[in-house]
Amino acid sequence: MLCPRSLLTILVLTLTLTTQAQTARPIGKTVKVKRGQTLSLSLLTPIDSGHANVGDVVTLKLVRPLVAGGLTVLPAEWIVQAKVTKVKRAGKNCRDGEVAWELDRIKIPGGDQLKLQMVYSYPFDPAILEDPLWVPLDTPSTKIGRAARFIGLVAVSIPLSPIFIPMAIFATEPCRGKAGEEKSLPLELRRIYAVSKSVRVKAIP
Q1: CA distance 63 to 73
Q2: DSSP class per residue in 60-99
Q3: How far apart are CA 70 and CA 205, in angstroms?
Q4: CA atoms within a 13 Å half-sphere pointing along the CA-CB vector of 149
Q5: pLDDT tens digit string along 81-128?
Q6: For 16, what's the count of Cα atoms within 13 Å in the CB-facing half-sphere?
Q7: H/E run at residue 117
Q8: Are strands 30-33 and 184-185 parallel, antiparallel or unpaired?
Q9: What percent of the chain has pLDDT over 70?
Q10: Rounded to 5 degrees, what angle do the CA atoms 164, 165, 168 make?
Q11: What angle do CA 14, 20, 25 make, to 5 degrees?
């Protein structure tokens, strides 16, 4: 049977080894995640404009790890959540449904946050990658996305409207009250987000 002094010695030794193990545990290094680095997210929640409501939670997962400075900041399969911000039901006169969600920032394992923006379009070489690791956010076509082409179209169309409006009316077949279709977003639909501001964060140990 062990004497009280031996038990005390074993207890102290155990506590010492535990403290040393905790102290020796590697601490995540600080790395810089650069503006324009991308996250590829896959939709885990089926969304339909006929049933979705503003405020509904949308769940997505990270398709590939986010790496900075050779270290992992976010692992693959990391789960993030967004919220539905806009829902428009389909209606008559060929009005299709519409649904949109918002994910402006996510929290990473180290406790820091990344501010994000969705990438609708960007200049890239389709022969290389459709899922880029980085996109140049300082170019007008990337920063504005689809709106850039829309604004350009409006700027050209306004001066020529006396010509195009009658042509459009003549060429367009009326919907005759036909109902539009609901917008349905399937599972595993991918969306590309980009880090909108460079930030130093803790990598995963």
Answers
A1: 14
A2: EEESS-EEETTEEEE-TT-EEEEEEEEEE--BTTTB--EE
A3: 12
A4: 7
A5: 999 999 999 998 889 999 999 998 899 888 889 999 988 877 655 555
A6: 6
A7: strand 113-118
A8: unpaired
A9: 66
A10: 85
A11: 130
Tokens of 192: 């590309």
Strand partners, 84: 101
Other Cβ atoms closer than 10 A to 109? 16
* Eight-class DSSP state of 28: P
Q: How far apart are the two ends of the chain, measured CA to CA in Å?
A: 43
- Alpha carbon 148 to chain centroid, angstroms: 21
Contacts of 196 (CB under 8 A, 6+ apart): 35, 115, 116, 117, 137
- Residue 137, both tokens: 């956010």
- Sign of the alpha-carbon dihedral angle for 148, 184, 168, 177: negative
Q: What are residue 114's DSSP bridge partners?
A: 106
At residue 34, what is the residue type? K
The secondary element (H helix, E strand) that includes residue 33 is: strand 30-33
For the record, the structure tokens of 48 come out as 């339909």
**Sorting pLDDT into bands at 50, 70 and 90, what band is 11?**
very low
